[in-house]
Amino acid sequence: MSYIEFKNVCKEYKMGEIIIKALDNTNFSIEKGELVVIVGPSGAGKTTALNILGGMDSITSGDVIVDNKNISKLKNKELIKYRREDIGFVFQFYNLVQNLTAIENVELATQICKDSLSPDEIMEKVGLKDRKNNFPSQLSGGEQQRVAIARAIAKNPKLLLCDEPTGALDYKTGKQILKLLQDTSRKEKMTVLIITHNAAIAPMGDKVIRFKNGKAESVEINNSPTPIEEIEW
Amino acid sequence: MLKKALLKDSIKEIKNSYKRFISIMIMALLGVGFFAGLRATSPDMLDTVDIYFKDQNVYDIQVISTLGLTNEDLEALKNIENVENVYGTCTQDGLIELEENEIVSKVMTVEDINKPRLIEGNMPQNMNECVVEESFLAGTNKKIGDTIIIEIENQENSNGEEVEYLKQKELKIVGTVQSPLYISLDRGTSSLGSGEVNYFIYISKENINVDFYTEIYVKVKNSEKYKTGTNSYEKYVETIKSNIEEIKKEREEARYQSLITQANNKIIEAEQEFNKQKQDGENQIAQAEQKLQTARDEIAKGENEIISNEKKANNEFSQAEKKLESAKAELLKNITEFNSKKQEAEQGLATAETQKQQLETNLNSINAGLEEINVNYNQILAKLKDPNLTEEQRTILEQSKNLLENEKLELENNKQTVEAGINQIITQTASIKQELANAQTQIENAKIEIPKQEANLKSQKTKVFNQIEQAKNQIQNAKVELQQGETELEDSKTEFNQKIEEAETKLIDAKEKVKEIENPEWYILDRNENTGYRSFKQDTESIENLSLVFPIVFFAIAALVSLTSMTRMVEEQRQELGTLKALGYNKFQISIKYILYSSLACIIGSLIGMNIGFQLLPRLIWKMYSIMYIMPDISISFNHAYSSLGLSLIYICIVGATMYAILRELVHQPATLLRPKAPKLGKRVLLEKITPIWKRLNFSQKVTIRNIFRYKKRFLMTIIGIFGCTSLILAGFGLKDSISKILPYQYEKIFNYDIQVTLKSSLNSEQIQNIITNIKNNDKIADIIETNMLSGVAKKENNEKDIQIIVPNNNDELNKYINLIDYKTEENLTLNNNGIYITDKLAELLNVKEGDTISIETTDEETKEFKITKIVENYVSHYIYISKDLYNESFKDDYSTNVLLLKDKDLNEEEQQELSKQMLQQKEISTITLTSTLMNSLNDTMNSLNYVVLILIVSAGLLAFVVLYNLSNVNISERIRELATIKVLGFYDKEVYKYVSRETMLLTIIGILFGLVGGYFLNFYIIGTCEIEMLRFPKVINFISYIYSIAITLIFTLIVNAVTYFALKKIDMISSLKSVE
To answer: Fewest CB within 10 angstroms: B75, B607, B787, B901, which?
Structure first.
C-alpha cells in the first residue's frame, strides 16, 4: 500500500439546484518521499484534491488514506490534529501573517507542533537568515514564499502541499522556490505535492499527476526527474 | 435604470450582509429607542398628570389661612380678574379607631373641584356614606359596605361656638377612589395619633357641620389651555397669584377684626360668667361656713348643757341620796322616838286611864249630886207650883230654887267638864293610839319606802347618766360631723380657689390670647405646593436629566460602531467601488448604495426603536413609579419632536459615518481602488524596544500585543465601547449607592436624634419648661435638647431658597444631636457666635462660599444679613444653623424653644411608635416625627429610583453587547485570511479563539479600567444633573459596585466571545484563502 492513497474520491458542491462535481471518482497514490507535481487546467480539481489531502475539505465519497490513516473519516478535531502534525501548506499568495516578522511567522507554526524544527535553522535553510526579523511587507514575493515554505516545513510535516507556489512570482524567483521545494524533498525525504498549471515544470517531479475534469487523468512516474535548474519555460 | 440596478444591488447587499445590517439597525434602534423613549417619558408623565388633573378639575391656586376662611373671602376671591371659579372646602384630620390600632385620616369632602376618581363602588350619596382609598381597605381589613367611626376635634364656628365637625360620625364605606391631591404615598402629618396621616377619606359635603372653610380652591380662567407644569402655565398662575396677593392683606385684616371682636365678646361673656360663678361660689362657702358656725355653737351649747345637767344631776342625786340618807337616819330616829313615844304614850294612856277612871268616878258623884239636886229642885218646883206659897216662902223657895239651879248648873258644868275630860282622854288615847298606829304605819311605810326610793334613785341615776352619756355621744358625733364639715368646707374652699384661679388664668390667658391673636395669614399656594404633585414633577425632572445624559453616550457609541462597521463594508467592497468608478459612475451614484444601505438600517432601526422606546420606556419607568404614585395609567403619545430629533441625530451619525467612509475611499483613483487595499503593515510596537518586558512575553502574548496595536481603530473602538459600558454600569450602581446613602447619611450621620417633638406655638415659657421636664422624666427618653426651628428664605442676589433655620439652645449640646461636619475637611464643628453655618447644597445653589454674606428672611418678614462661617455636610433639604446669641442679637431676642430633639433609650420602632402616641396625648405637643418612620417612608421613594438604575444597567449591558459583537464581527471579517491561515496551520478551535479573544480580553480589561475611572466621573456628573434641589446625593461608590461593573462587563464580553467562538469555528479556510489579497 502506498503512503498516500486516493481511492474513488468524489467531491460534489451544491450550488443551488446544480451539483458540481469537483472530483469525480479520482484515484491515485503517492509514495513516501516523492515529489509529486499535479498539473491540469483551471477547475480540473487539483486544488480540491490538495485541500482534501490537506484536511481542509471533506469528500462526498471514497477514501483518502495517508500513512495508513483514512483521513476522510476523521472528525473535525482529528482533522485539525492531522493538519497540525502531518501537513505543511504553501499557498500561491503566501498567506503570511502580516503582523508577524518572518521568523515569527515560522514560530507561529512551530509553537503548536511537538517535534518541530528550529525556526532559526529553517530560516537559514531557506536562505533568509538575515531577513528573519523583517515583516512580510518588507520582503519580496519570493522571500515571502520562502517564509511560507519555511513555516510549512518547520512543522516537520509528513506532507508538504503547495498550491501554485510560484503563481504570483516571476520566473526567476519561481525557479528558486521550486528549487527549494525540490531540495527539501530530496534532503529531508519529505513527501511534497506541488500544484501547478504550468505543465512545463512537470518533469521536476518523481511523479506527475495530470488532472482533467475532476479526474486524475494520468499518473506518470518519472524515474529521472529533471533538476529544476535545467527546466526552462 | 441605473438606479434600479443600484437599489437591487443594495437589497442584495443587505441580504448578503444581513448581520451587519442588523447590527447597524440595532444600534439605531438602541440609540433612537433610548433617546426617544427616555426623552418622552418625562413629557408623557407630565401629560398623564395633566390629563388627570384636568379630568378631576384640580385647583390652580389654593388659599389657606391660619385662621380659617369665610364666605366673604370666597366672594372676594371670586371677583379677582381671571378667576373662573372658587370653591370653599373643609378638610380636617380624623381619628378612626380600629380593633388593634387607630389611624389618622385626612377627611375631605366630595366637591366639584379636585374630584376624586372612582375606582370601585359609588360616590357618597348622603351624609352617612364615605369613600376611601384602596390601600385603606387593604390596610384596615375593611371592605366596601363596612362602617367606620371618625372622630374629629370639635371646631369653633364663626360665632365662636364650639360645634361637632361632622353631623354623622358613623360612615359606611361605599367605594374606593384615587385623589388627585394625593398622588404620592405621602399623606402629610397631623397633630393626631402618631403624627402621621395614614389615609384620606372623602365624605359628602352635607355632613360638614361648620360654617367656615379650611381652604379655598381657585380655578383660573382658560386653565384648560395650559399644560400643568409648563412655564407658561406657571407664569399664568403666578399672575393670578399676585392678584390674590393684593387682596390678601385686606382679607386677613377683616378676618382678624371679626375674630378679635368675637373673642372679646366671648371674653366679656366669660368674665361675667366667671364673676357670677365666683360670687355664687363665695356665697355658697359663706353659707356653709355659717351653718358650720351654728353647728359649732350648738355643740358648744349642748356641751354646756350636758355639763350643767350632769352637775345638776349629780347635785340632785347627791341631795336625794343625802335626803334618803337623812330619811334613813330619821327613820331610825323616828323608830327610836316612836318607841320611846310609844312607851310614853303607853304610860300616858295608862295615866289617862286612871284619870278617866277618876273622872268617871267624879262624874258618877256629880251625877249623883245632880240627881239629888234634881230631886230637890223638882220638890222646890213642885212646892213653887203650889200657888199659896208666900212670897217669902216663895222667895225662900225661889232662892233655894236658884241656888239649886246654880248648883245644878255648876254640877252640870262639872259634869260637862268631866265628861269633856273623859272624852278628851278617850280622844286623846284614841288619837295617841291612832298616832302610834300612824307612826307605826309610817315607820313601816318608811321602812318599805326607803329601799324603794333607793332603788328608784339608782335607776333614775343610771337613766340620767345614760342620757347624759348619750347626749355626750351625740355631741361627739356632732363634733365629728362638724370636723368633717369643716374639712369639706376647707376642701371645697381650696377647690373653689383653684377653680377660680384656673378660671382666672384661663381668662387671663384668653385675654392675652386675644391680644396675641395673630394676624391671620393667608397662604396662596399653587400646585407646586402639593407634595404629591411636586415630588412627581421632581421625579419627571430627574428622568428628564437622566434622559439628557444617557442617549448621548448611546449616540456616541452608536455612531462610532456604525462608522467602524460601514468603513469595513466599504473597504470590503473597494474593488466594486473601483469598478463602478472606472465605469464612470459619479460619486453620488456610487455612494447611493451605501447611503441607501445605511439609511435603510438607520430608518428601520430608528422606527422600530422609537416605537419600542415610546411604548416601553415610559411604561417601564411608569410601572416603577406607580409604586410611589397612585394615578391613572400613563398616557403614551408618539412624541414627534423627539422621534424626529432622535432619527435625525442617529441618521447624521450613521449615514454621516457611511458617507465619510465612502468619500474617503472615493478620493482614490479607480486603479488604486481596484487593487486590493494593502493590508495593514506589520510594525514593531514600542513595547518591543523595552526588551526586558518583551523578552518575558511568550509568543502568543507578543502576537496579541502586536495585533492590538496594529488595529488601532478597533482597539480604540473596543476600549471606548467597553469604557462606555463599564462607566454606564458603574454610574448606575454608583447612583444607586449614592441614593441609598442619602438617608443613612442624613438621619444617622448628620442627624443623631431619634425623635423630633414640635411644640404648639401658643405655649408660654412656663408651659414649655413643664413639657420639657415632663419629657425628661420619661424613663424611655435618654436625652433632650431644645431648639428653635423656623422656616425662612435665604437670599443671595437673585437666588432665593426655602430653608429651615435651626437655633439650638446650647451650641455645645447640639453636637450630640446634629453633627456639623465641614463639607470639605470632614472636621467636626461647633456652632459659634461669629456667624452662621449653612448646608453645602444651599451654598451651591446660592453660589456662596465661606466668608460670604447672605440675607435670611424669617416668616415674620424680617430680613437680616449673616456672615457664613462654615459650610456643613447635609443631604436632605436646606438648613441654616445660627447660635442662640447671634439669633437673638439679630432678631431682637426672639428665641423661643419650639422643637425638642430627643434621644431614646434604644427603643425599637414599635416602642417608639408607642412612645410617640403616648407623648402626643400631651396637649402641648403639636407633632412628633420619628426618625425611623421618616426614613422608612423616604426609603420607599428612594428604592423606586433603583429601577431607573436597573434600566441603566440593562441598557448599558445591551450596548456593550452590541458594540462588542459588532467589533468582533468587524475583527473577524478584517482578519479572516489570517484566521484561516492559522486554522490551516492546525490551530485547534480553542486556540484560534484564544488567538483572537486574548486581544479582546486585553482590550476589555483596558476598557474596564478606563470605564471605572470614567464611571467614577460620569457618576458624579449624573449625580450632579439628576440631583433634586432638596437633596444632596453623597458622592460614594461602594467597592462592590466596582466589582459588579467589572463582572457585568466581563459577562457581556464573555457572551460576545462565545458568539465569536462559533463564528470563528465556522470560518471556511478554503474560500477565505482563495481570493487575492
So the answer is: B75
